[in-house]
Amino acid sequence: MSFGDFMQGNWWRMPLNVWTEAVVEWLTLNLRGFFGLVKTVAQGLYDGLHWVLDAPPFVIVALVLTAIAFAASGWKLALGTAISLTVIDLVGQWDNAMESLALTLLASIIALLIGFPLGILAAKSQRFSAFIRPVLDFLQTMPAFVYLIPVVVIFYAGAVSGLVATVIFALAPAVRFTELGIRQVDSEVTEAGHAFGAPPRQILRQIEIPLAMPTIMAGVNQVIMLALSMVVIAGMVGAGGLGSDVYQALTRVQVGLGFEAGLGVVLLAIFLDRVTASLSKRTPVARALRATE
Question: What pLDDT, in 10s, does the model give residues 199-212?
């Protein structure tokens, strides 16, 4: 440290940036094999899902998504979905939309697979809940762009980096809503299960999770929405899809291209939000609650 740094008060600066870079460098050097395996598996899953969505003709994929919307909420959502998908195709964003949809769905599935058991564990253990809560606060308050930096260093630019950053960004609601839903289950109901001799796993599987399903489905909705918002930002690191066009439009000041890609994101978000919201209303508990109103 120079005398100038000392006089300017830089002597007390905590070198968090140096420590962070050291940790990332250590991870990159010592866990290269693990990260390579993660990248291979994630790339394979993404390519497979992207092929399923993008390889068939537009009409077939649009019909399937419209049928999902009809099954979830009826003809109004189906009609809106058909019109939205047609608009996306007419503005030339179909391929990008399918890339973004594949990345969103895969990231959401992985986030739910990780977050659901963590939420159950947090609901069952007060100590684990106290540990995981500040971690989730950190994940939710950290700016989304910051996730991209270490992820790109480890996995390099591409779809996998966008996928990993999206999973981290969308993980918190899966844990929080699962814990909240299970904690909201009436204790008298679970005590009745204990009284009839049901083991804890059976109580969890047949009583707590079904009763918590409306809250858990609200968490699923939040995970998907966060994943879709992060997919656009992930376009900056070469994740492709609508995010890459938004980034290109931003850097080249192409207002029209940015509007087309942004419109595709909005239409996909409306479709995913309405479908998941409708599915949450169709759970047995939600139907029973509406019947008692």
Answer: 888 888 888 888 88
Instruction: Tell which residue, 180, 164, 203, has the closest CA to residue 118.
Output: 180
CA-closest candidate to residue 100, choices 255, 256, 250, 268: 268
CB 167 within 8 A of CB 110: yes
DSSP 207: I
What phi and psi values does residue 14 have, to the nearest 5 degrees? -75, 125
Under DSSP, the state recorded for 206 is I
Rounded Cα distance between 68 and 78, Å, is: 8
In the chain, DSSP finds a helix count (H) and a strand count (E) of 15, 0
Rg of the Cα atoms in the chain: 22
pTM above 0.70, yes or no: yes
> pLDDT digits over 177-196, tens only?
999 999 988 888 888 877 87
Using CA atoms, how far apart are residues 99 and 232, in angstroms rounded to an integer? 11
Instruction: Give 237-254 as a DSSP string.
Output: GT--THHHHHHHHHHHT-
> Taking a C-beta distance cutoff of 8 angstroms, is the pair 165, 148 a contact?
yes
Residue with tokens 């009583």: 207
